[in-house]
């Protein structure tokens, strides 16, 4: 994309003119019926006038600067053959309005054979930076912030690059409890429903056929947390999802599975603990104990990092406000059926 500075001066102090070399790519950036431009206008408080391959931005200087950065990111994305969704536009806006990255900082992204994954919020950028620099990373925050998806994507990238020999994905099956034995099927069929989100993330990053082959070979293993006891996990990317539902003993057991050449990611949402009342979450305790330990990073996501439907952010904010007024889990405990 070219910035026509001479025309920008002629446009006046409150206007910036941008021009594009490739009309086809410009059309992808603008979106169908200029949908992407409308999103940028509404979110950043600028007016955008499109004429052919040229855009005129009008509004405050800071808003125009952010809009230009968003458009440049989208153009670069289109030029590499990647699609531009409304989520990509939203992510580019989040990143453009965040604090500027240090000079010379590498661009955070994850590349797999099927897609390129880039951060869509400052929290996601911090998470990817932490994954690149630490052997153990905690990703903590509300639903929809991409904690699990980015961890799986990072594991797939590490596997394809030969940095690890296998990926191990795990979750506690807390909801099953003693009722697990009453579910139909063999053990795999009983626990698969609890691991489905991990399968979904995996299938978005590689074809289901390739994922199935790697799982059958043991290169990718998806198993409930209980199956981790007694093992040493070396040269692997080990991901524990929904870790807020681990007991303190389970969390210590899992953490001590870390073997030579392994990397570990632990994700969870402290607002969705399903353990019995009075039982301490292993994730809560681990974060408290391990804060500041060398080689361990703790990344905390907020509602501002939610990249699902915008309504999800408002739902999370409403629940947070309710919890602040009622003392968190109190009202939930009252709604539980009595034995």
Secondary-structure map with pairings?
Layout: E1 2-3, H1 5-10, E2 15-19, H2 23-30, H3 35-44, E3 47-51, E4 54-58, H4 61-79, H5 86-96, E5 110-111, E6 116-117, H6 122-133, E7 136-140, H7 147-160, E8 166-171, H8 187-205, H9 208-217, E9 220-224, E10 236-240, H10 248-255, E11 263-268, H11 282-290, E12 296-300, H12 310-326, H13 330-335
Parallel strand pairs: 7-11, 7-12, 8-9, 8-10, 10-11
Antiparallel strand pairs: 1-2, 2-4, 3-4, 5-6
Please tell me what the overall shape is: globular
> How do the helices and strands follow one another from N- to C-terminus?
EHEHHEEHHEEHEHEHHEEHEHEHH
The total strand number stands at 12
Structural class: alpha/beta
What strand order characterises the main sheet?
A: 9-8-10-11-7-12
Poorly predicted regions are 1-10, 176-180, 330-339
Mean pLDDT: 81
Question: Please, how many helices?
Answer: 13
| Biggest sheet architecture | 6 strands, parallel
Q: Specify the helix fraction band.
A: 40-55%
Question: Can you give a write-up of this model?
Answer:
This protein has 339 residues and is an alpha/beta fold. It is 44% helix and 16% strand. It has 13 helices and twelve strands. The strands form three sheets. The chain has a six-stranded parallel beta sheet, sandwiched between helices. A four-stranded antiparallel beta sheet has the order 1-2-4-3. Strands 5-6 form a two-stranded antiparallel ribbon. Helix 10 (248-255) links the parallel strand 10 and strand 11 (263-268). The N and C termini lie far apart (66 Å). The model is unreliable at 1-10, 176-180 and 330-339 (pLDDT under 50).
């Amino acid at each position: 994309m070219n910035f026509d500075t001479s025309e920008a001066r002629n446009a006046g102090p409150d206007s910036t003119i941008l021009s594009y070399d490739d009309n086809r790519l410009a059309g992808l950036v603008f979106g169908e019926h200029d949908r992407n431009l409308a999103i940028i206008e509404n979110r950043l408080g600028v007016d955008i006038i499109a004429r052919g391959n040229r855009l005129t931005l009008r509004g405050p200087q800071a808003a125009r600067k952010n809009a230009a950065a968003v458009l440049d990111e989208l153009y670069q994305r289109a030029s590499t053959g990647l699609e531009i969704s409304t989520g990509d536009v939203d992510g580019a806006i989040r990143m453009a309005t965040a604090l500027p990255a240090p000079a010379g900082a590498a661009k955070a992204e994850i590349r797999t054979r099927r897609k390129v994954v880039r951060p869509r919020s400052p929290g996601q950028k911090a998470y990817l930076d932490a994954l690149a620099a630490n052997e153990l990373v905690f990703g903590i925050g509300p639903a929809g912030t991409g904690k699990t998806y980015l961890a799986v994507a990072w594991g797939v990238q590490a596997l394809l690059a030969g940095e690890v020999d296998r990926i191990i994905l795990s979750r506690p099956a807390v909801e099953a409890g003693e009722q697990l034995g009453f579910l139909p099927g063999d053990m795999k069929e009983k626990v698969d429903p609890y691991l489905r989100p991990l399968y979904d993330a995996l299938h978005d990053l590689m074809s289901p056929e390739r994922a199935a082959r790697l799982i059958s070979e043991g290169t990718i293993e998806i198993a409930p947390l209980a199956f981790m006891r007694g093992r040493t996990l070396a040269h692997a990317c080990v991901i524990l999802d929904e870790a807020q539902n681990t007991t303190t003993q389970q969390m210590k057991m899992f953490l001590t599975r870390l073997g030579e050449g392994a990397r570990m990611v632990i994700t969870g949402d402290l607002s969705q603990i399903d353990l019995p009342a009075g039982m301490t979450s292993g994730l809560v305790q681990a974060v408290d104990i391990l804060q500041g330990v060398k080689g361990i990073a703790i990344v905390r996501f907020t509602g501002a990092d939610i990249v699902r439907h915008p309504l999800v952010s408002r739902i999370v904010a409403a629940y947070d406000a309710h919890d602040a007024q009622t003392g968190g889990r109190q009202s939930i405990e009252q709604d539980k059926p009595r034995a």
